[in-house]
Design goal:
By secondary structure, the protein is mainly beta. It has one helix and 47 strands.
Length: 753
């Protein structure tokens, strides 16, 4: 029994050993076939995963989608550490999203924010459902930065580190960036730099700098503040706050505050400024138009001229060239002022500075934008010509419209205005009175080499004033070099000495001398210290008429020609030509001379109580080819065959010398001497006495006639004839005195009744 018990026990042990061995082998086989167990989680880690996706929606539209190749969840703080991150920030309509890529990021579950300390690439405006950056639709902007934080609930992204970004037409950079996909607004914190590429083949890039910037993708606008700079090749603009408008990524407009700029090219420099400056760009980022408001200024410097334009509003229009745009037209409005100041040039004198003022001024440039072609106003304006060298006059003009034309090197060629008023101030000590003119039309032409005034032409209702001198005409022309004014059409000039009117007057500005042609009429006023000559009395007004007349030496020398007539009161002289020298007190008349001198009218003997004369004046009329009168001797010398006529008396001879009385005398004629084939005829009360001789004398006061020389003969129609060496008779009575010849008594033939 004991043996059987051990056998049973041995069998049981054998079975157990077999089963145990089989179990162990099975377990070993199972162990070999089952997968390896995951490594244990590190301390503080709640879990791990791969190909992780996180999505947040807003109703029907997705809002945020985060993908990562792997992640692990940290207990404290509760964040997810993501690798190979792609973040989609959807726009409101859900058809576009902004794609964010980063190698590593942390997702804060509680704060719902994603933060990447490393490099981040943000591609904005991708079509929904497309992840490749260069698929259809392109990219609007790509941002390269680091240290970016994303808010999953709002989709906003921000960093305070430097960011670089690219867009279809350029690139840029900034320090610190905020981006809101909902409003599609990009905020660049500081040190903003943007550069737009030129789309055109010959275009040039345009760069912008600012202290801070906001890019609103929805409105296609960039806001720059608090300062901004714009640079395109030689164009540089600095301003305060500015706003840039884009069109499909291309810069189209810019609005800047407190701006000033310059375009500095070889041979041309354009500067501009305004409180508010608007710029419009064309193809290749070329400037097409610049508008300035409030305190606008334009300075164009080219060759020998600097032109400065100021106004409340300035509009600059540019013409696009192959590589750049050039100034084509400038418009200045509201209190506009355009100043053209010449620049010093070796060997040349500076011409005048021109200052134009008006409410509206247009400047049209020559092709190339380097030189001015024309300047004009839309309304009333003034121009000041300011001297830049000694001896130049100062001129100013005011007109309802003004046009100015320029030649090469910005030299003025012509100047035109309507309803114009001019003022010219000449230098001197003391300063002479200004010259003032006015007319309906005005045209000035200038020397193309020096810009000095050559000719000034004024038409229709011309008026002139210079001190005490005045003039009027239908047309006036000033020749600046000669300092001569020509008046045409109903021309008239006056000064304190008198006046002159004619179809045409040519006046010397400096001397006051003038030449008159065509229906000349002059008036000479009495002198302050008049002479008392009967012929050239300075105490009376002297008038003249002729077809041609000249005045010289301050109206002291006068010349009349062509049916000339000069008169004072009833005294007058007619001739083909008359010359008066008031300094030498000489009066000359030549060609068909007719002189008339009046005695004072005698009172009517029948009414001695009356104070006024009732008997007409007595005239002495002399005709001759030539007359020379000298006031110092009061002698009027007639030559070439003279004939004198007085009431009841006529004298004919080859020569006649008439001695004039003082104006206070009753008779203008004191005495007259005739020589050469003299014939004197005296008639009174039906009695005629005719005397002939070589020499004769007539004394007015005594009415005495003396004949001598050449066998004098007196024929009396009542008493016969008388011969003698000298015959003397009195025309107012019956007296006759005969002086016989030596060795021969006088012959007398007496007629009996």
């Amino acid at each position: 029994m004991r043996l059987s018990r051990w056998l049973i026990l041995a069998a049981i042990l054998a079975i157990v050993a077999f089963v145990g061995q089989t179990y162990i082998k099975r377990q070993q086989a199972l162990a070999r076939d089952k997968p390896a167990p995951p490594p244990p989680l590190e301390t503080g880690i709640d879990g791990r995963a791969t190909d992780w996706v996180y999505t947040q929606s807003d109703g029907e539209h997705p809002r945020v989608t985060v993908r990562a190749k792997s992640f692990r969840q940290v207990k404290a703080p509760s964040v997810m550490e993501l690798n190979g991150v792609e973040l989609q920030l959807f726009h409101k309509d859900g058809d576009q999203f902004d794609l964010v890529r980063s190698e590593k990021a942390q997702f804060d579950i509680a704060a719902k924010t994603l933060y990447s300390d490393g490099d981040v690439v943000i591609t904005m405006g991708k079509p929904a459902g497309k992840l490749v950056a260069d698929e259809d639709g392109g990219r609007i902007v790509t941002i390269h930065t680091s240290g970016v934080r994303f808010a999953s609930d709002t989709g906003t992204a921000s960093t305070d580190r430097k960011a670089k970004f690219e867009f279809e037409k350029g690139h840029g950079s900034a320090e610190g960036v905020d981006y809101d996909p909902n409003s599609r607004a990009l905020h660049l914190h500081s040190k903003v730099e943007l550069q737009w590429k030129a789309a055109a083949p010959h275009g040039k890039p345009l760069s912008i700098e600012a202290g801070e910037a906001y890019y609103n993708e929805a409105e296609s606008k960039v806001f720059l503040l608090p300062w901004s700079k714009l640079t395109r090749d030689s164009l540089h603009i600095e301003a305060g706050a500015a706003q840039v408008t884009l069109d499909h990524g291309v810069m189209k407009e810019a609005l800047a505050q407190a701006a000033h700029g310059v375009e500095d090219d070889p041979g041309r420099k354009v500067e501009f400024a305004a409180d508010s400056l608007w710029l419009r760009f064309g193809d290749g980022t070329k400037i097409e138009e610049i508008k300035g408001q409030q305190n606008g200024k334009l300075i164009s410097t080219a060759n020998a001229m600097r032109t400065t334009v100021t106004a409340d509003i300035i509009d600059l229009e540019f013409e696009a060239g192959v590589e750049e745009s050039t100034l084509k037209h400038a418009l200045a409005m509201q209190k506009a002022v355009a100043e053209a100041r010449p620049l010093p040039r070796p060997g040349e004198l500076l011409p005048e500075t021109r200052v134009l003022k008006s409410e509206v001024i247009h400047l049209n440039m020559r092709p190339g934008g380097r030189e001015i072609a024309t300047v004009e106003t839309d309304g009333a304006g003034t121009v000041d010509f300011l001297p830049n060298q000694q001896g130049q006059p100062k001129r100013s003009l005011k007109g309802d419209r003004i046009w100015m034309t320029y030649g090469p090197e910005n030299r003025i060629e012509s100047f035109r205005s309507i309803n114009a008023f001019t003022r010219t101030e000449k230098p001197g000590t003391p300063a002479p009175p200004p010259m003032l003119t006015q007319s309906k039309e005005l045209l000035a032409t200038f020397d193309p080499k020096t810009s000095e005034l050559l000719r000034l032409e004024q038409k229709t209702n011309f008026r002139y004033e210079e001190g005490t001198r005045r003039a009027t005409a239908d047309k006036a022309t000033l020749e600046q070099v000669k300092d001569i004014i020509t008046l045409e059409g109903s021309a008239r000039a006056t000064d304190p000495t008198g006046s002159a009117a004619a179809d045409r007057l040519v006046m010397n500005q400096e001397t006051g001398d003038f030449v008159a042609d065509g229906r000349v009429a002059t008036t000479r006023l009495p002198d302050q210290k008049p002479s008392s000559s009967a012929l050239l009395s300075g105490a009376e007004v002297m008038q003249g008429r002729a077809q041609h007349m000249t005045s010289a030496e301050n109206n002291q020398k006068l010349h009349y020609e062509g049916s000339a007539v000069v008169w004072q009161g009833a005294n007058r002289v007619e001739a083909d030509r008359i010359d008066i020298d008031r300094t030498k007190q000489i009066f000359e008349a030549h060609g068909k001379v007719v002189s008339q001198f009046a005695d004072k009218a005698a009172p009517d003997k029948t009414d001695m109580v009356k104070t006024k004369s009732t008997t007409g004046p007595i005239f002495t009329v002399v005709r001759a080819p030539d007359l020379v009168y000298t006031d110092t001797t009061r002698l009027a010398y007639y030559q070439g065959g003279a004939a004198m006529v007085r009431p009841g008396l006529s004298v004919v001879g080859q020569e006649l010398k008439a001695y004039m009385n003082d104006r206070s005398a009753a008779s203008s004629l004191d005495k007259a001497f005739a020589d050469g084939a003299v014939k004197i005829v005296s008639s009174a009360d039906k009695r005629t006495r005719t005397g002939t001789s070589d020499h004769a004398e007539y004394y007015t006061a005594e009415q005495k006639v003396i004949l001598n020389g050449g066998d004098p003969l007196l024929v009396d129609n009542l008493k016969g004839q008388t011969r003698g060496k000298q015959l003397t008779w009195w025309s107012n009575n019956d007296r006759l005195l005969v002086n016989g010849v030596e060795n021969r008594p006088a012959d007398t033939l007496i007629r009996k009744k």
